[in-house]
């Protein structure tokens, strides 16, 4: 995903620059955050924030979710017509994420929110792509019926460890 992330960042900067040069107003930039436990690397997220900030526009992180399940190579990208049939091997955490994965997910959210806080002068908002793991869009794509765990609130509507670290990161800025 890293090369695709870099390409999208460069394309967004070119587009905003081109629009502004032609006198077309641009009020802000949105960066979709459908990320994985280790991709894109934090350095690339920060580079994107720095490069997008150079456009002089506020940045909104939209659709944030962090998928802790392995991503199938054939499903990398945004082709929503792609589907894979559900198998037990593709659905290892039906009864919840193991504690080690919960902690990795929490660390990932903490690290990402630390970047957002560091660049708070240009990151104007963060929105999540769902509220609980029970209603995440990932439960329906790309593997319909797969049990995903990408959000701050679990399937039963209770906060996960990731919720606590996001609150801490934000509280530290107050």
Q: Roughly what percent helix?
A: 25-40%
Let me know the average pLDDT. Answer: 89
Distance between the termini: 34 Å
| Quaternary structure annotation | single chain
Tally of contiguous helical segments:
4
The tally of strands reads 3
- Described by the principal axes of the CA atoms, the overall outline is globular
- In order across it, which strands form the biggest sheet? 1-2-3
Q: Assign the CATH topology.
A: TIM Barrel
* Known CATH architecture: Alpha-Beta Barrel
Give the secondary structure arrangement, pairings included.
Elements: H1 2-21, E1 28-36, H2 42-53, E2 58-67, H3 99-118, E3 123-128, H4 161-171
Parallel strand pairs: 1-2, 2-3
Helix pairs in contact: 1-2, 2-3, 3-4
Relevant terms:
174 residues, alpha/beta, TIM Barrel, three-stranded parallel β-sheet, 4 helices, 36% helix, 14% strand, globular
Describe this structure in words.
- The structure is a single chain.
- By secondary structure, the protein is of the alpha/beta class.
- It has a single domain, classed as Glycosidases (TIM Barrel, Alpha-Beta Barrel), CATH 3.20.20.
- The protein has helices at 2-21, 42-53, 99-118, 161-171; strands at 28-36, 58-67, 123-128.
- A 3-stranded parallel beta sheet has the order 1-2-3, covered by helices on one side.
- β1, α2 and β2 form a beta-alpha-beta unit.
- α1 packs parallel to α2 (42-53), α2 (42-53) runs parallel beside α3 and α3 (99-118) packs parallel to α4 (161-171).
């Amino acid at each position: 995903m890293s090369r695709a992330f870099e390409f999208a960042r460069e394309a967004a900067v070119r587009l905003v620059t081109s629009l502004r040069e032609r006198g077309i107003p641009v009020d802000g930039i949105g960066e979709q955050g459908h990320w994985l436990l280790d991709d894109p690397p934090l350095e690339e997220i920060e580079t994107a924030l720095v490069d997008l900030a150079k456009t002089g526009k506020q940045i909104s992180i939209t659709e944030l979710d962090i998928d802790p399940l392995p991503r199938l190579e054939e499903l990398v990208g945004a082709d929503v017509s792609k589907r894979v049939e559900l198998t037990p091997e593709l659905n290892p955490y039906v009864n919840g994420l193991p504690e080690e994965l919960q902690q990795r997910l929490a660390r990932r959210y903490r690290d990402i929110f630390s970047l957002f806080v560091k660049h708070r002068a240009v990151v104007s908002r963060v929105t999540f792509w769902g509220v609980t793991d029970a209603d995440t869009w990932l439960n329906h794509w790309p593997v319909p019926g797969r049990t995903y765990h990408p959000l701050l609130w679990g399937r039963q509507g209770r906060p996960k460890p990731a919720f606590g670290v996001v609150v801490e990161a934000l509280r530290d800025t107050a």
